[in-house]
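Support request from a user on the community tier.

User writes: "When I paste my structure tokens into the form, the page sometimes reloads and wipes my input. The last time it worked, I copied everything first. Here is what I submitted, just in case something in the input itself triggers the reload:"
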């Protein structure tokens, strides 16, 4: 696993955006061979999206041949609900870039048939050639996508029930805690780990415990971020605050070996 520690969240977002653009450009995607990108919502990736929009406007990257799959969606929120992940992606990213609407994939939280929706989503990823780069954030309890503690590390896309702690954390975006949906559709841990490369981003002190468990803890379904330890090309990108609970030796090691790397 690579661990990249940046001084603050702005530098971190900048690095992430440049890395995504570099990966897309290096791949030289075409209509028949698109670059497949897994995407997260949340406050963590917002600056990365803003940076990617600027890079697109300057002609440094194009999304014309990029196919996206979002990680998750709340059950019961229609696409035009301001707290749905459909809405988030549209407002914060898709409407500002040259991506084709038919290349965008999000789970439908309004579906009547969860099993079919999840199976179709897995199939669509496979049909697209698999995900080249899956980007994610992390919850305070170490969840990636909505894979709450005790999610199977072999899980695929399915329905999950949120923990009280996640409902509380995400209630900051809703009028009240009662309005936060308790169930979601989410890609599984194995779905994320099937990507060629996985980049998990974390900033701020409240992610420090999750980052410590993900990097220094054992592989465990209690902290699902730890699944990244088994990925051959996993990257954790964090700011100094999110890295603050790592041992000084771990921090020093990664800061030294990554200092000149992209
Ligand atoms: C939600 C999302 C996760 C995200 C997490 C952290 O639970 N399902 O994908 O990583 O929130 O969000 P934030 O970046 O706002 O801290």
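"...and here is what came back when it finally went through:"
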């Amino acid at each position: 696993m690579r661990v990249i520690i940046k001084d603050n969240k702005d530098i971190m977002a900048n690095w992430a955006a440049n890395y995504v653009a570099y990966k897309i450009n290096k791949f030289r995607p075409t209509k028949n061979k698109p670059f497949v990108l897994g995407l997260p919502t949340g406050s963590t990736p917002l600056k990365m999206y803003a940076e990617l929009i600027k890079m697109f406007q300057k002609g440094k990257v194009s999304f014309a041949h990029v196919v996206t799959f979002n990680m998750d969606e709340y059950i019961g929120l229609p696409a035009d609900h301001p707290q749905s992940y459909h809405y988030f992606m549209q407002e914060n990213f898709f409407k500002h870039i040259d991506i084709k609407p038919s290349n965008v994939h999000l789970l439908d939280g309004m579906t009547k048939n969860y099993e079919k929706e999840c199976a179709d989503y897995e199939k669509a990823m496979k049909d697209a050639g698999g995900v080249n780069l899956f980007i994610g954030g992390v919850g305070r309890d170490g969840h990636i996508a909505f894979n709450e503690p005790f999610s199977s590390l072999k899980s695929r896309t399915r329905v999950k029930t949120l923990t009280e702690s996640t409902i509380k954390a995400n209630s900051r975006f809703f009028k009240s805690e009662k309005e936060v949906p308790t169930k979601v559709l989410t890609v599984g841990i194995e779905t994320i780990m099937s990507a060629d490369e996985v980049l998990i981003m974390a900033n701020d002190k409240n992610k420090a415990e999750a980052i410590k468990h993900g990097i220094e803890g054992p592989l465990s379904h209690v902290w699902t971020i730890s699944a990244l330890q088994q990925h051959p090309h996993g990257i954790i990108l964090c700011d100094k605050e999110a890295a603050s609970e790592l041992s000084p030796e771990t921090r020093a090691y990664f800061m030294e070996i990554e200092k000149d790397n992209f």
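Agent notes: The reload is a front-end session timeout and is unrelated to the input. The longest helix spans residues 9-27. The pocket of GLP is lined by residues 40-44, 71-72, 136-139, 145-146, 166, 170 (CB under 6 Å). Escalated to web team.
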